[in-house]
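Sequence only, no structure available. Ideas?
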Amino acid sequence: MSFVLSRFSALLCAFWLVLSSTSVYADKNELDDLRSQVGRDWVLVKNDRLRNIKTYVRLEDGKQYRSFKVEAILDCTVDALAHVLLDFDNYTKWYWKTRESRLLEQKSATEYIVYMVHEAPYGIPDRDVVIKGVIEPQTKTKRALTLKVSAFPEYLPPKPPLVRMPAEDMSVKFSPLPNNRIQLEAEGYFDAGGTVPAWAANFVQRSAPYSVVLGLQRMVSLDEYRKSKKALAFPIYDYDDYK
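Reply:
I predicted one. Tokens follow.
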């Protein structure tokens, strides 16, 4: 019996490796096809009509990898969204391949320094990043809440074998819509640092933005954020407040 189980386990492992390799090469071929189409204008990469998410990529002068853009709709209030964004310890539940996240310093009511560790594919060292997030709150006359994120690699000394990311930058605009919905518009750029195959880096640029927004949509639907009673240090306005 043990011999049969061992043989079955070996076959299962071999089958999984074949599937994984096929998936990787398929992704690489797909990216090679896409790379030939990418220029200085935005190219639509994914249009998920069911979840109201669109992602784009383009090349920019002076940047090694492609930049990204996301357009999406969130079904939540601005209050629920703010509580998710400020819950830094739980970014591991929704942010792209994040196995560690924590707040290092709150410099003001709207400025935060956050540390994150991202999982890398097998054979590549995991990445860590220090990011500075600055929130531009809404006002009675400015409907959108804006989040600007930039890498802050010199804030902490390196932590080998982790590779420090030199860029995880983005600007996100959240605009309230009728019926407790929010329009999300984001642009950004990731640079994993160190040595990474170009196809793998571009795969992250292509996949991570969609995954992050998908995770955000899921988090804002949770009661712990929708019904949170925690006070926020900046004003919040929903669509009806501007009527």
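The chain has two domains: 1-36, 41-242.
Hope that gets you unstuck.
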